Amino acid sequence: MSKRPGRVAIFEQFAADGIKYMFGNPGTVEQGLLDAMGETDMSYVLALQESVAVAMADGYARASQQPGLVQLHTGVGLGNAVGMLYQAKRGGSPLVVIAGDAGVRYDAMDAQMAVDLVAMAEPVTKYATRVTDPDSVLRVLRRAVKIAMTPPRGPVFVALPADVLDAVTEEPALPTVVPSTRVLPEPALVARMASVLSGGNRPLILMGDGVATSGAQRELATVAQLLGARVYGVNNSEVNLDAADPSYAGNLGHMFGTDSARVVGDADRVLIVGTYVFPEVFPTLHNPFSDQAKIVHIDLDGYEIAKNHPVDIGVIADPKLTLAALAVELGHQGGAPAAPARVTGRTAPVVSSGPPSVLELFTERLAQQAPGDLILFDEALTAGEPLGRHLPAREPGRFFQTRGGSLGIGIPGALGAKLARPDQSVVAFTGDGGSMYTIQALWTAARYGIDAKFVICNNGRYRLLDHNIDQYWREQGIEPHARPSAFDLTTPPIGFTQLASSLGVPGRRVSRLREVDGAVAEMLSHRGPFLIDLVIE
Questions:
Q1: Contacts of 312-315 spanning 24+ positions with Cβ under 8 A
Q2: What does the pLDDT look like over 103-131, one tens digit per residue?
């Protein structure tokens, strides 16, 4: 391998790993790196703020099942990105995040922007490190890709000092080897799992995004049918089970553990697969499962198995292969499949005698008119019920939802998904509050002509906070009263179409039923990014 600066060699490594995009926001200490990038085939996707860059990479990684590469500007850029990195860590998005600093030779100076980047990144990443030797830059990047892509997937961080990248290296660029985790439990353990799970009368399955990562949707559906089990989503932000499957009972709540406890408390057999339990903000401190319940937990993240509550069998194994083997064993032990579980956790939507709401009609018309390959990126939160009715999450790879608790991924996440799937239609639903975390992403959409569509569900409030404080008042015995003024977004009102126009994206405000049909048609037929300001209350 010929000698060349590390800032050149780094792009040879990215090319060896098939990484095509770098999402980022530039800074002075990365100027040599970005200058060298001009001689490569890699595309730089400029974001106006670092959280936008991370969210775009997150959407790209989820839609492509490949690592998303992010460039940040030392500690100030990393600080701006922390919220979105937390979401990526909680959701298991394989991101490779790099940031420059002035140089190893300046470490003792405590100069402008000096900070311990690794210490900053560690709480919100799966792995964080700093390269200090020119002949280890590429091996550390390969390690980063490997760690990011090995389940449980997650973001990794590598600090790249400018003087290390300026130094000459002969280190070769080689494709990263990501180890296979397609492991299967021994037959005796599979038989034991089947025996435990088939011995009850009230079986329950809790599923999460580890199912989608493994591609185990069909196998999960088969096991649910054989057990006659209800299936609930936990940390369920992708298509882990067809929403039309008769076993699917919906999602558990993400806020209060008492809500989940009411669902799981009567189960006598529980299969947990591809998720941690439970991801609420306010979980129950006691075990929500019945003392008589037998629990089996299958995941590739051993840390999460029996982390908070005991299980009878914990298995670190690939969900797809393990569920397939479990289905065979259940068939041997139990004979014919059980009748599909009677789902008691879902109720049919209330049909009003009056006209539909603007949101209801909009989602209905979108479902009728959208192309069959539509990818939906959903950050609508409290406005999400009509989406579930008219655009249910049915096919793997065509539905992505916010996760991890942070807002703002809707618009940039859709941009990343569109770059990953350029031949498919992408529509993002977000709220008025959530959209303003990363509204700068519209400028990136316009700059690169990324043909994604955005629907802002505008109710003039942080509506989720309204719901949460209502429950808080009930639990504390407080009489309802005026909600905090901090939840209001109408003073002054936000002009979303004007804001979008200023960032180069055309838009249309929709507040009446008669405006819906024309707006849906215009949005879908427009070439390039387009925004709908959907006034829903």
A1: 312/196, 313/189, 313/192, 313/193, 313/196, 315/185, 315/189, 315/193
A2: 999 999 988 888 999 999 999 999 999 99
